[in-house]
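Query structure, 366 tokens:
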């Protein structure tokens, strides 16, 4: 397996010239995220079908020359399960690569499997059983071993072969447009691209809170998110989610309630106790009409019989398409359909053709 390790700016420049001539690039990243909020990238692998470049971001003082390549509209960037890779590029370069082809999404739309692993996909198409011995190695430690470099290079080489086979199958089934549409929205849910004030909606159990309690939760989640980003530490290192929910439910009488009632650690109390108490107290005082709207409970306000009938439609469509029903339609989108009496945005596009029209026909019989 031949590859070039790129550790100097001149080498990077030359590699970008070579890659800029390609129509397709397979890309992967190796990173570590244990004690940080942001991923710490240790290697970027790029393969154009002939040459493999292993770019060392630790040795290189500037990666900005990668930007033009990652944004070139004439080059398809192929990843597998790319959400974390996109987060790496967003943090390192401030951009989301476009256009993207995700082989995991393609596999789902080809009926190979929902959320299939890279190892299983390579075995399915190429008959090669990949070893996982380097998956959890330290990619920030230098020098990288020969085994690490070979493992990293083979990842993108095999990915190129997988892409070619998936592309052929997608063209034969007229589903390439489906994959392109699905991949166009990738990267929009990267945490740093979401407004910190919206993170409270992701907290499990938030739907049981009243508006005043939700305001406390919203402000605390927003503060935690900003703090984690600024300090580059994991969110739970600031304060755990279960503690945020407990504080939102409490009417704090003193700071010590944070320890006795919300179970924050002594270290967190020393570092952030004053701020947490202050944020919660101020949020609790806001007038109710200025607080967030109640979060609807899942399935709580829809006709269960109608929901079951819609789920059967989804199952039938999924079976006829050989696609996982979980990938085709999420339960919350069926609930939204029942509440709005029209297709939610998520069920338009290719999904309208695949299942949306059938759901509307079933809805008309209610």
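Result returned for the query:
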């Amino acid at each position: 397996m031949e590859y070039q390790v790129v550790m100097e700016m001149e080498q990077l420049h030359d590699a970008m010239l070579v890659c800029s001539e390609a129509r397709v690039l397979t890309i992967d990243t190796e990173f570590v995220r244990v004690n940080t909020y942001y991923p710490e990238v240790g290697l970027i692998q790029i393969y154009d079908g002939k040459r493999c470049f292993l770019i060392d971001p630790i040795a290189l003082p500037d990666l900005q020359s990668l930007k033009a390549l990652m944004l070139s509209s004439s080059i398809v960037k192929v990843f597998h399960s790319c959400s974390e890779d996109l987060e790496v590029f967003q943090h390192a370069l401030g951009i989301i690569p476009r256009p993207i082809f995700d082989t995991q999404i393609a596999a789902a739309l080809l009926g190979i499997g929902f959320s299939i692993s890279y190892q299983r996909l390579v075995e399915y198409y190429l008959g090669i059983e990949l070893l996982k011995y380097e998956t959890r190695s330290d990619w920030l430690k230098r020098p990288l071993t020969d085994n690490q470099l070979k493992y990293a290079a083979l990842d993108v080489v095999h990915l190129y072969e997988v892409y070619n086979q998936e592309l052929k199958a997608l063209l034969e089934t007229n589903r390439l447009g489906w994959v392109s549409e699905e991949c166009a929205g990738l990267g929009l849910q990267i945490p740093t691209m979401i407004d910190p004030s919206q993170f409270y909606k992701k907290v499990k159990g938030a739907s049981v809170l009243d508006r005043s309690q939700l305001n406390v939760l919203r402000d605390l989640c927003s503060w935690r998110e900003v703090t984690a980003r600024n300090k580059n530490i994991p969110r739970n290192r600031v304060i755990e989610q279960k503690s945020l929910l407990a504080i939102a439910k409490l009417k704090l009488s003193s700071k010590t309630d944070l320890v006795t009632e919300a179970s924050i650690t002594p270290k967190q109390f020393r570092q952030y106790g004053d701020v947490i108490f202050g944020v919660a107290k101020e949020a609790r005082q806001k007038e109710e009409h200025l607080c967030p709207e109640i979060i609807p409970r899942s399935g709580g306000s829809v006709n269960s019989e109608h929901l079951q009938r819609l789920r059967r439609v989804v199952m039938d469509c999924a079976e006829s398409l050989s696609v996982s029903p979980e990938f085709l339609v999420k339960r919350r989108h069926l609930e939204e359909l029942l509440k709005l009496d029209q297709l939610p945005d998520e069920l338009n596009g290719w999904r309208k053709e695949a299942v949306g029209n059938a759901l509307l026909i079933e809805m008309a019989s209610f």
